[in-house]
Amino acid sequence: MAISKALIASLLISLLLLQLVQADVFENSQKKNGYAKKIDCGSACVARCRLSRRPRLCHRACGTCCYRCNCVPPGTYGNYDKCQCYATLTTHGGRRKCP
């Protein structure tokens, strides 16, 4: 009787752990497939490019980077450490793509 109780308890714990692992895998796959919460790239890029000397170019580049990375660093310049994807995108010439 004691063995059957231990067996049932271990099976229940195993099933619970399996459910938790499957839920985590499902959540991660949704983020990779684009189901994560999207930010408003338009307003984020308006804030980022408000002091730019070339606002149209800045908005176009920022919009592309925001769409790919789903983040825009705060402020009008710098802060690339807040959004690593945004910081790593480069042009064909090796310069930073994102303002």
UniProtKB/TrEMBL annotation:
<comment type="similarity">
    <text>Belongs to the GASA family.</text>
</comment>
<protein>
    <submittedName>
        <fullName>Gibberellin regulated protein</fullName>
    </submittedName>
</protein>
<dbReference type="InterPro" id="IPR003854">
    <property type="entry name" value="GASA"/>
</dbReference>
<keyword id="KW-0939">Gibberellin signaling pathway</keyword>
<feature type="signal peptide">
    <location>
        <begin position="1"/>
        <end position="23"/>
    </location>
</feature>
<keyword id="KW-0732">Signal</keyword>
<dbReference type="GO" id="GO:0009740">
    <property type="term" value="P:gibberellic acid mediated signaling pathway"/>
</dbReference>
<dbReference type="Pfam" id="PF02704">
    <property type="entry name" value="GASA"/>
</dbReference>
